[in-house]
Amino acid sequence: MTAINQNTPMPTDPNDGMVNGIHMETLLGTVNAIAQEPELGACKFRASNKWLGGNHNCTTVTGFYGAKQEITHKQQFELHADEPPILAGNDDGANPVEHLLNALAACVTTSMVAHAAVRGIRIEELESELEGDLDLRGFLGLDEKVPKGFTDIRINFKVKADIDDMEQLKRLTAYSPVFNTLTQGANVEIRVERK
Amino acid sequence: MTAINQNTPMPTDPNDGMVNGIHMETLLGTVNAIAQEPELGACKFRASNKWLGGNHNCTTVTGFYGAKQEITHKQQFELHADEPPILAGNDDGANPVEHLLNALAACVTTSMVAHAAVRGIRIEELESELEGDLDLRGFLGLDEKVPKGFTDIRINFKVKADIDDMEQLKRLTAYSPVFNTLTQGANVEIRVERK
């Protein structure tokens, strides 16, 4: 069995073995380990949420299951969601659909950067603007024919890289797990029990 | 035309007109305005993302379009994403798929609380645990037959409320925009241009 070492030290020289800021030995070590032992790739990602009153709630992320072991993040992440005043909230956090756009932006960006690194494409700068169309009549139950979720989401990247073929970079975003979850759909099972 | 006032003052008595911490006059005012003038429901939510090197990037959320106007949040929200060391990151933020679970948790929670409020159901406590299955072989391009996104996501709610019918509360989560985007899918259009 090829072990995955989650504590691989970073090199002291920041350019030593790094492409796009990614330590290639670590990344390729993970890729090769999973290629040799496929069950290492099976992950369970997790989040805990607590309602704080009104439209305000907080998600805590502490760890996940991957590489056949429980892995704890270096720090605990807390993510607050709320609604703006027009939607009867206090604006104490981005709202849930804005958090969804964040998840998508983060994932297509990471996917492009990592897959470019593996292919030896060096990216210097990368930024994106996202916009998604959502008709509140769906959420509010005012019209059953109106979709309740986002119908269309547009992502516009601007990139400075050492290749000219922007379509090649675009194709790398197709590896993104969040992009695939949103475009292909996932099964979501909900249970509600009395506390 | 029925105007939506995004600056409706909150009542000085915190219990005055509040259900589940939501100011009902504000919420029902929005519902009635959109019912009378459907185009007020058309929203465009937005996010801007900047790559910070490696697997670290940051999304900024400042405002959105809704009720036929540009609306600015009271504060700017910054959301950091990174990967854990095992995935060649520095753990400077939840990773993108954990952010996706956060968006889903926040949205089904808000949907349950708000739709319960409209129906006069009082919720005292509400928390949830989420877990999603993701096989990294998809993202890493090791096996074309392996889905790249989440396949199954489970949400377990625990709730303290003034009704016994937990199935009724569960049904309210079906209004969630993020739940619907994930289960129904959305069109995502990506453009990449040189900076």
Walk me through what this model shows.
The structure is a homodimer of 195-residue chains. In chain A, 28% of the residues lie in helices and 35% in strands. The first copy, chain A, is an alpha+beta fold and 195 residues long. In chain A, the strands form 3 sheets. The first copy, chain A, has a 3-stranded antiparallel β-sheet with strand order 3-4-5, with no helix packed on it. Mean pLDDT of chain A is 93; it is low at 5-14. Strand 6 of chain A pairs antiparallel with strand 3 of chain B.
How do the strands line up in the largest sheet of chain A?
3-4-5
Largest interface: A-B, 138 and 137 residues
Helix proportion of residues of chain A, in percent?
25-40%
Span between N and C termini of chain A?
43 Å
Instruction: Give me the oligomer status.
Output: homodimer
Tell me the major beta sheet of chain A: 3 strands, antiparallel
Structural class by secondary-structure content of chain A: alpha+beta
Count of β-strands of chain A: 8
Spans of chain A with pLDDT under 50 lasting ≥5 residues? Answer: 5-14
Basic shape of chain A: globular
**Which band does the percent of strand residues of chain A land in?**
25-35%
Q: Tell me the number of helical segments of chain A per DSSP (H or I, 4 or more residues long).
A: 5
H and E order of chain A: EEHEEEHEHEHHE
| pLDDT averaged over residues of chain A | 93
Give Rg of chain A in angstroms: 20 Å
List keywords for this structure.
homodimer; 195 residues; alpha+beta; 3-stranded antiparallel beta sheet; two-stranded antiparallel ribbon; 5 helices; 8 strands; 35% strand; globular
